[in-house]
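Retro notes
What went well: the complex prediction finally ran end to end.
Inputs used:
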Amino acid sequence: MKIEIVENVLKYNKDQANLNRELFKKNNVLVINLLSSPGAGKTSLIIETIKRLKQKKNIGVIEGDISSTHDAQKIKEYISEVVQINTGGSCHLNATMVAKAVEKFNLENLNLILIENVGNLICPVGFDLGEDFKVVVSSVSEGDDKPVKYPPVFIKSNEVILNKTDMLESSDFSIDFFRKKVNELNHGAEIIEVSCKTGSGLEKWINWITDRDIKNN
Amino acid sequence: MKIEIVENVLKYNKDQANLNRELFKKNNVLVINLLSSPGAGKTSLIIETIKRLKQKKNIGVIEGDISSTHDAQKIKEYISEVVQINTGGSCHLNATMVAKAVEKFNLENLNLILIENVGNLICPVGFDLGEDFKVVVSSVSEGDDKPVKYPPVFIKSNEVILNKTDMLESSDFSIDFFRKKVNELNHGAEIIEVSCKTGSGLEKWINWITDRDIKNN
């Protein structure tokens, strides 16, 4: 009984995700679902991305949190198209929440939607939101063993951002170990090393997005 | 229907947690359930605790992970009483998993069991394991806004460890803001500032445990 209900929940989510995807495609909007542990730097990455792209692209942000509007407020200092989703305790976003948030955007005008999922390296992985790409943000301060301990998010993501590389010198994080473990799980995912604090590596991330922007290609 | 099943799961867990608690009390074992984001330093805290207490206390460790035996192997370098639980993808430990793990210990001989929950700041909060205390480990590198963004774990924990205080100088983390937000959620929880890297503050944490050790009091 429990398994059947979980399957129904996932089936219902998949159907809604497919509707979201159709809507995004029709409007030629690139949609990226950002996944990470709490505090890995999703909000900082979004802000640095907006700073570098807002002259050229129209960007919308969907902020997922279990409560508060803390991150949405930070992002509103940079752009107006921000929608906060409070999950009411739920540990991940789902496609229905995203569908409702997207109603607040004028999709025809947008190039890019960045979705900041709830800070959780496990639960959001199983919930398709209709995005084009899942990107996992890992950070040096979390340690180099995250791919070993949380494989699914690294398997399912299309791209891996390693943030807080400014901390590399003062930590025992091994880039080689991290790369090796990510590659064992996911041959296709490129690892982009960045520091949102110093700006290092962000150009590569911006190029990765720009290469995928559908309206301008 | 879904709500009813969730309630049944929680009721079943609570019943098993109460059985665990009885067993722990009968054997005068202090049990601490450690909760945190991935990479906040639960494993390091456990290792530093073992180093400082193993001459005086018999310690058992239960390691919760969605997969791998990575952390259990690290801890086995220091003590032999380590049981790994692999949740098979589940985002939290439950009381039944802990009951099975505890069968591997000789409880009469133990003073203290440290349970390292799955790295997740949300889902483990609702699942009583029969522990005496829930302790949340937050870290400077995650940012000072964690109590704002993840209130339940700070509300439900008996004690807050702030780890990685060696990073305070090079970050914009505000201890005052963090303390204020924790206190707003939970008047009773003391905040112990530690650095597992430098050893700073660990004495206070060790005293906190020693004050609560039932066999020796």
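What we learned: The two ends of chain A are 48 Å apart (CA to CA).
What to try next: split runs per interface for comparison.
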